[in-house]
User: Which sequence fits this backbone?
């Protein structure tokens, strides 16, 4: 059972943050498996990635729909690993990935959506945001980089910004990768201990980790405030990489399926033409 498009067990139903609901991460099971098994997951993911490859080829050829995938999560939640797996299914030409870092002076001289808007994918593209405009209600809130009355208004801006994109033909899917504090500790330790991962780790990561509860509150509010019917958040238990990959791949494939992308018809007279 690789896909469950509309069944009760579809990840789209299980993980979608209901618009208007209050997200509470306190009781969240970060290692939930929903009855799926790791042994089977590898084959299941491979099947879904095949589906994704076919859907993207059509979407690219049709050049009608733009799809924006937003990935958020605390440090070491698995954003990079997710991109490696999901984008691995796609033709890179149609899959721009944008990583949002600490804003440059030029970016800071503008409104916070300025740097984001220009990277929204165009028709035919599936664009992936590794972090996003949500940083402006997450790290910015936790560090008090702007006063509260400014970041609080941003939830409304973001809802409207995304609504505008949807109205203009962009399909938006947002994934929050949720890991446990102990899982982050293990992953950080692994980064320190593994010479091939050490470059990823900064001493500042330990300082950020001390603000775990502040980040949790900021994540809860961001998800509660901005999950809409048009641009839903999916809250993904991400302690287990295999479950995370399977869930995200399935949700994305089901979302693309709904767009029903088709290869464009051939030019009149092409069919049956013999090329000398
Ligand atoms: P990484 O994802 O590990 O490459 O780190 C990127 C860093 O940029 C993270 O620490 C983010 O919190 C930070 N960052 C991204 N966007 C913003 C923003 N709008 N304001 C401040 N810091 C940001
Ligand atoms: Mg980092």
Assistant:
């Amino acid at each position: 059972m690789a896909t469950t498009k509309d069944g009760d067990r579809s990840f789209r139903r299980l993980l979608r943050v209901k618009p208007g609901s209050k997200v509470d991460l306190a009781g969240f099971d970060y290692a939930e498996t929903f009855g799926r098994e790791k042994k089977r997951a590898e084959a299941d993911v491979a099947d879904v990635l095949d589906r994704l490859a076919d859907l993207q080829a059509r979407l690219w050829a049709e050049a009608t729909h733009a799809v924006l995938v937003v990935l958020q999560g605390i440090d070491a939640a698995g954003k990079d690993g997710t991109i490696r797996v999901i984008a691995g299914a796609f033709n890179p030409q149609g899959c721009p990935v944008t990583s949002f870092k600490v804003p440059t002076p030029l970016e800071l001289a503008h409104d916070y959506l300025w740097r984001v808007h220009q990277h929204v994918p165009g028709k035919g593209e599936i664009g992936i945001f590794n972090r996003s405009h949500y940083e402006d209600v997450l790290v910015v809130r936790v560090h008090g980089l702007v006063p509260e009355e400014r970041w609080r208004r941003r939830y409304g801006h973001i809802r409207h910004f995304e609504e505008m994109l949807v109205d203009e033909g962009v399909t938006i899917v947002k994934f929050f990768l949720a890991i446990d504090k102990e899982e982050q500790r293990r992953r950080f330790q692994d980064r320190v201990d593994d010479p091939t991962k050490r470059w990823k780790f900064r001493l500042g990561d330990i300082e950020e980790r001390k603000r775990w509860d502040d980040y949790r509150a900021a994540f809860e509010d961001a998800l509660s405030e901005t999950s809409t019917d048009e641009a839903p958040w999916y809250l993904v238990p991400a302690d287990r990489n295999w479950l995370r990959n399977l869930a995200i791949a399935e949700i994305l494939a089901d979302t693309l399926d709904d767009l029903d992308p088709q290869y464009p018809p051939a030019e009149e007279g092409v069919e049956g033409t013999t090329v000398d």
Remarks:
- The two ends are 47 Å apart (CA to CA).
- Residues 100-103, 131, 135-136, 139-140 surround adenosine monophosphate (ligand 1) (CB under 6 Å).
- The mean pLDDT is 96.
